[in-house]
Amino acid sequence: MRICVLGGSGFVGKYLVERLTGEGHEVVVPTRDTIAHRDLLVLTGVRLVTADLHSPAALRRQFSGMDAVVNLIGILNERRSGDFARVHVDIPRRVVEACEAAEVPRLLHVSALNAGMDAPSRYLRSKWQGEVAVKGARFAATVFRPSVLFGRGDSFSTRLASWIRFAPGVFPLAAAESRFAPLHVADLVRAMVAALRARKTFGATYDLCGPVTYTLRQWVEYIARLQERHVRVVALGDRLSWFQAWLLERMPGQLLTRDNYLTLRVDAVCTTPWPPVFAPLPEPPAHILPSYLARSHGRVVELDR
User: What DSSP string describes 157-206?
Assistant: First the structure.
């Protein structure tokens, strides 16, 4: 297939592009900076093109002749007011319109678990609006709503590990008892590739979670063990959690923002099992995280739960 991957230079995108090209597909990755992402060119079958993804005309040109389009574009934080709407709402609408104009028969779209019209955070509400646009498409579209993703190079576990590595022994933690079922990025990618030709997935929406649910406190304590660090997690109440988020969103890297905190207050767990169409079941974190976060190479550390 000829597939255009929007967001192909990002965390999920790089995993997806590698898998697609490994299966013999031709992949086009539009980007504003082809030089910055030239590492993708080591993969046979990848073509980087310069394009403005906010331009309907540019999208139509890139989608011409494609068998499928994948939209992975998303942000966790806003740099300026309205960024969530511009990225999570406007782009999906333009993608659907451009797919229809270019007669692309297949669209895969990644949203977020708990996205909803009445969700507590701007992030989740904007993700829902993007879903609505995709679900209104007049061709075969599939929506994926993953829980928290992890994997080498992610912006969650890897960043937490760097903070824990230099923590003074006490780790104040907002939303410490929030629950989530972390999903390895490779399992999301596997499901997306399987969905490309699986007709039963056409028009469907899938909530995707890992096989085990943890609290944020357990997750931090486990990463600390992998780093061979002893930290005492101090759970913060609502007011202190809000203050910590307010403080961290003003620091480089923005490990946590107030909008992130509102997102965390909703448990990111699935109410349905892993879809049989995407068998086998996803890998548990304890089989994967030690391979890239453990200080002792190759050491297996089980996660207490």
Answer: HHHHHHHHHT--SEEEETTTT-EE--EEHHHHHHHHHHHTT-GGGTT-EE
Residues contacting 288, CB < 8 A, separation 6+: 150, 151, 184
The string of DSSP letters for the chain reads -EEEEETTTSHHHHHHHHHHHHTT-EEEEEES-TTTTGGGGGSTTEEEEE--TT-HHHHHHHHTT-SEEEE----SS-SSTTHHIIIIIIHHHHHHHHHHHHT--EEEEE--TT--TT-SSHHHHHHHHHHHHHHT-SSEEEEEEE-SEE-TT-SSHHHHHHHHHT--SEEEETTTT-EE--EEHHHHHHHHHHHTT-GGGTT-EEEE--SS-EEHHHHHHHHHHHTT---EEEE--HHHHHHHHHHHTTSTT-S--HHHHHHHTS-B--SSPPPGGG-SPPPPGGGTTHHHH-SSTT---PPP-
What is the per-residue pLDDT across 43-102, written as a single tens digit (0 to 9) for each? Answer: 899 999 999 999 999 999 999 999 999 999 999 999 899 999 999 999 999 999 999 999
The pLDDT tens digits for 66-82 are 999 999 999 999 989 99
* Over residues 134-154, mean pLDDT: 96
Tokens, residue 94:
């333009």
- Whether the pTM exceeds 0.85: the reply is yes
